[in-house]
Design brief:
Strand content: under 5%
Number of domains: 1
Helix content: 40-55%
Number of strands: 0
Order of helices and strands: HHHHHHH
Distance between the termini: 53 Å
Oligomer: single chain
Largest sheet: none
Radius of gyration: 17 Å
Structural class: mainly alpha
Length: 182
């Protein structure tokens, strides 16, 4: 029952055209699904189509979203659990939890009449390595790399979202890497 939905989301006509990720996930035993997602993300980050040298860390929420084919947040709480590019995590579960707590605080403040900027994160007294939002170019670049690798792994290199992101990434990289080249 999920196959027609998956084919539609991935914009492919037949099961044979699905990205390798989905065959590996379907073949994995229940207790090995998490490891399979992790291995696929790592493999893509080392492959020829990668966006960079980092790989997103597989989380229980990511596995749940993938196995239920939930590609969009269907509840406001999904914004607190990583369904946005800057929450593609690269740390431990503790890092993940701390980053989401900060995201909740940031969302609460930004919904008020107050204006909050990234520099205001310093006032939260949260260590830099636990911040969910990039506050400098290098963190921003890493977040985009993580998001691109997640797209490429799950949707495949030929999906319209992945190809559009690759065009953006190429333009972004060429424009800003020349500016920040030391």
């Amino acid at each position: 029952m999920l196959l027609p939905l998956l084919l539609n989301y991935l914009n492919v006509q037949s099961e044979q055209n699905l990205p390798d990720f989905w065959f590996r996930l379907a073949a994995a035993k229940k207790k090995q699904e998490f490891r399979t997602v992790h291995d696929c993300l790592e493999a893509y980050s080392r492959g020829p189509a990668t966006f960079g040298p980092y790989a997103p860390i597989a989380t229980p929420k990511l596995l749940s979203d993938l196995t239920t084919i939930t590609f969009v947040g269907d509840h406001p709480d999904d914004l607190k659990t990583g369904n946005q590019p800057f929450n593609a995590m690269d740390g431990s579960e503790e890092h993940h939890a701390a980053a989401h707590e900060l995201a909740r605080t940031y969302a609460l403040l930004s919904e008020q009449q107050l204006g909050v900027s990234y520099s205001d994160l310093d006032n939260f007294k949260v260590p830099i390595d636990l911040r969910a939002h990039p506050t400098n170019y290098f963190e921003f670049e890493k977040s985009l790399i993580l998001f691109g690798i997640l797209l490429g792994t799950v949707l495949g290199n030929n999906h319209v979202i992945t190809t559009s992101f690759r065009e953006f990434w190429t333009t972004f990289s060429l424009q800003y890497k020349h500016r920040f080249h030391f």
